[in-house]
Design goal:
By secondary structure, the protein is α/β, with parallel strands linked by helices. Helix content is 37%, strand content 19%.
């Protein structure tokens, strides 16, 4: 598993930032640069994404395995203090880690995700996840990604290109140089296999884990999110760690922590006494 590192590599105060289902660690470039004076910032590419290896068996693309990988990563970076920022899937991984006995996570930021997920949103994501697509240029890929990422909210052209350029890699298809998404298409296999019944059973386990979290927790939500419902977000403020909830207008799933107001909210929470 590859990871990107910002700040002093000897700093034992570590901030781990973990991306969403089909994204990669460079999503946090802007946020990591802001936080590196205080932290050693670690932004992993979850297995199957970005620069990390792909699994031979796609059945391994599951939340428990991701949590286990992060336990290994934390041991490798030898962190004494761990704060966690997780967007979507990265938030679920953080919840899993924070719920473990004697968890090293001391502050947790969960970005637009919760134990209960709206099944219609999972179906929306499943409609495009893993499709065999390629483009003639990074700009063409960015234009496509804009159509499936409306929930990220408004960004300048430069901000959007920064979010997109690490999402693709150059390959050769039929003798032509093109760009493909930088993740294993097979990450879609276990995702598409989820039924409403399986999702309900998984949510029960996620709520059990959430209720076991004791560290201070910040919950971010896009006001127009179709994945994290207002009801689930409110329940997360009343159960388990009783998260502090901050919502962002004009954003769906999910805030990308590029805009200054989003960065400021998370920074204030992480560095507060």
């Amino acid at each position: 598993m590859a990871y990107w590192q910002w700040g002093d590599p000897t700093n034992d105060r570590v901030l781990v930032c973990v991306h969403g289902l089909s994204r990669q660690g460079r999503d946090f470039d802007v946020f990591a640069q802001v936080m590196q004076p205080e932290y050693r910032v670690i932004c992993p590419d979850v297995v199957g994404r970005g620069q990390s290896d792909w699994l031979r068996d796609p059945a391994g693309y599951q939340l428990p395995n991701y949590v286990a990988d992060m336990v290994t990563l934390l041991a490798r970076v030898n962190a004494k203090t761990v704060h966690w920022v997780g967007t979507s899937m990265g938030g679920l991984i953080g919840m899993g880690l924070a719920s473990l006995p004697q968890s090293p996570i001391q502050r947790l930021v969960v970005n637009d995700v919760g134990p209960s997920l709206e099944f219609s949103a999972l179906q929306r994501i499943g409609n495009y996840l893993g499709l065999p697509m390629h483009w003639a240029s990074v700009e063409d890929a960015a234009a496509y990604l804009a159509t499936i990422s409306v929930g990220f909210g408004p960004h300048t052209p430069a901000q959007w290109m920064a979010l997109c350029q690490h999402m693709v890699k150059p390959v050769t298809v039929d003798g032509n140089n093109v760009y493909k998404l930088h993740y294993d298409p097979q990450i879609a296999a276990p995702f598409r296999a989820v039924t409403p019944e399986a999702a309900a059973a998984g949510q029960a386990m996620l709520w059990m884990g959430y209720d076991a979290i004791t560290c201070p927790t910040l919950l971010l939500r896009g006001m127009q999110s179709d994945l994290l419902s207002p009801a689930t977000a409110q329940a997360m403020t009343q159960r388990g760690p009783k998260a502090r909830l901050v919502e962002f207008e004009g954003v769906g799933h999910a805030p990308m922590l590029v805009q200054a107001d989003q960065v400021a909210v998370v920074r204030e929470f992480l560095l507060s006494a």
